[in-house]
């Protein structure tokens, strides 16, 4: 046990087994919904939902284990929620591309990811981002996940008159979210260790007692077969033979690249890992990300990426890779205990996302708001993420504006050359996404 603690540097990080295990469990609980949401989304393309469930669990487990062992960060990896919607509704349904070919596109994008990672290009790009914009990314992700939590919990809903509005307070599950939010806020204010996790447990118990959360019919079930999706990507690489499909591959590459890069930076900022505006071991973190994406495509799921829900585990004290080792193991265990995961509804995890959003929004104080050449692009990032419902779109808006405002302020020489390159990359990215 002492060797494991030494490997994960518990002493320097001022952590211990109990705290890391609790953090890993909290992260898993916060993102376990992907086990059920991903099959539902990809199932719309005709993919076998059972196979996607198993692929999701295995790809998530692999990503978490690699992140924990290689990069030693408490940042979990799983199929990205926004990218799976692009895969299903834009590529397969909108463009009428078979899911088999789309999976092949994910595989090719993953190979390109690994090449870019090996060349350390991704690492160079992340380190080239100015500190103020990194602070904006962290705060923007905070607002984004808080908005997710408010929407998942039924507190904020779509409204034809005002775009969004307050949800109905006559819905029982909405009160479950309110209960969890109040309990968690009180515990956080009182500095109670594990407050977020305790809040989720209380919400789950209340839901079960009141009948708002149905009791599972069984406890253990056999993991569904991977056969319908296993290695289908390899068999369909030859079908990527048109300009349209090349654009699809590049879009997968761009979206996953900047979603993951932005999430890594935001979470590293929250946990206090950033040093001199750089993220240590970022290359290893990107290797874990690209490898899990590659394997995930072979198993039969959409692109994986770093998960903002990792912030819940970080908030309860997770600081080492052991946190996501626990998360990865729980993903494997979930293959046979999947019926129990159904009791952790979106109303249970919603308060955790809202509270963590508050914590991440604290990065706003580190942005130089007195200088408009910094404030304008930073503001577009912060506001763009929740309003476009996309981390990568929010980053794109800010990164396109940043060189413009810096040049206008006669500070163009202070802009890293890669930021000028990203200006054109994001212009292309926004055009590609808007053209779909």
Automatic annotation (TrEMBL):
Entry membrane topology: Multi-pass membrane protein
Ranges annotated as spanning the membrane: 21-38, 50-70, 103-121, 133-151, 163-188, 195-220, 240-265, 314-333, 340-362, 374-403, 415-433
One Pfam assignment: Xan_ur_permease
GO molecular function: purine nucleobase transmembrane transporter activity
UniProt keyword annotations, A-Z: Cell membrane, Membrane, Transmembrane, Transmembrane helix, Transport
The keyword Hydrolase appears for this protein: no
Organism superkingdom: Bacteria
Localization of this protein: Cell membrane
Listed GO CC annotations: plasma membrane
Family label: Belongs to the nucleobase:cation symporter-2 (NCS2) (TC 2.A.40) family. Azg-like subfamily.
Protein name (record): Transport protein
């Amino acid at each position: 046990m002492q060797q494991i603690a030494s490997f994960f540097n518990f002493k320097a990080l001022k952590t211990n087994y109990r705290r890391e295990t609790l953090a890993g469990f909290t992260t898993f609980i916060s993102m376990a919904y992907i086990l059920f949401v991903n099959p539902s989304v990809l199932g719309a393309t005709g993919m076998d939902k059972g196979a996607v469930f198993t692929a999701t669990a295995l790809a998530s487990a692999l990503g978490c284990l690699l992140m924990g062992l290689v990069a030693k960060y408490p940042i979990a990896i799983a199929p990205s929620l926004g990218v799976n919607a692009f895969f299903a509704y834009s590529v397969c349904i909108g463009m009428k591309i078979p899911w088999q070919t789309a999976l092949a596109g994910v595989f090719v994008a993953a190979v390109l990811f690994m090449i870019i990672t090996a060349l350390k290009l991704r690492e160079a790009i992340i380190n080239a981002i100015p500190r103020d914009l990194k602070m904006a990314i962290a705060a923007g992700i905070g607002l984004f996940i808080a908005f997710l939590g408010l929407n998942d919990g039924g507190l904020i809903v779509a409204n034809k008159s005002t775009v969004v509005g307050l949800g109905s307070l006559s819905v029982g599950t909405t009160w479950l979210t309110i209960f969890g939010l109040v309990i968690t806020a009180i515990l956080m204010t009182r500095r109670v260790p594990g407050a977020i996790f305790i809040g989720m447990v209380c919400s789950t118990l209340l839901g079960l007692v009141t009948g708002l959360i149905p009791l599972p019919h069984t406890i253990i079930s056999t993991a569904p077969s991977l056969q319908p999706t296993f290695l289908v990507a390899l068999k369909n690489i030859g079908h990527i033979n048109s300009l349209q499909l090349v654009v699809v591959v590049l879009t997968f590459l761009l979206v996953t690249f900047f979603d993951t890069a932005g999430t890594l930076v935001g979470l590293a900022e929250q946990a206090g890992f950033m040093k001199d505006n750089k993220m240590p071991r970022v290359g290893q973190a990107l290797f874990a990300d690209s490898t899990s994406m590659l394997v995930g495509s072979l198993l039969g799921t959409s692109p994986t990426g770093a998960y903002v829900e990792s912030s819940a585990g970080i908030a309860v004290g997770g600081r080492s890779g052991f946190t996501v080792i626990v998360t990865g193991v729980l993903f494997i265990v979930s293959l046979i205990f999947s019926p129990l995961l159904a009791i952790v509804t979106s109303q249970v995890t919603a308060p955790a996302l809202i509270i963590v959003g508050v914590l991440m929004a604290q990065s706003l104080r580190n942005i130089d708001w007195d200088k408009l050449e910094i404030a304008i692009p930073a503001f577009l990032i912060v506001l763009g993420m929740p309003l476009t419902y996309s981390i990568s779109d929010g980053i794109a808006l800010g990164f396109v504006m940043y060189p413009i405002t810096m040049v206008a302020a006669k500070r163009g020489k202070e802009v890293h050359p890669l930021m000028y390159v990203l200006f054109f990359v994001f212009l292309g990215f926004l055009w590609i996404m808007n053209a779909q």
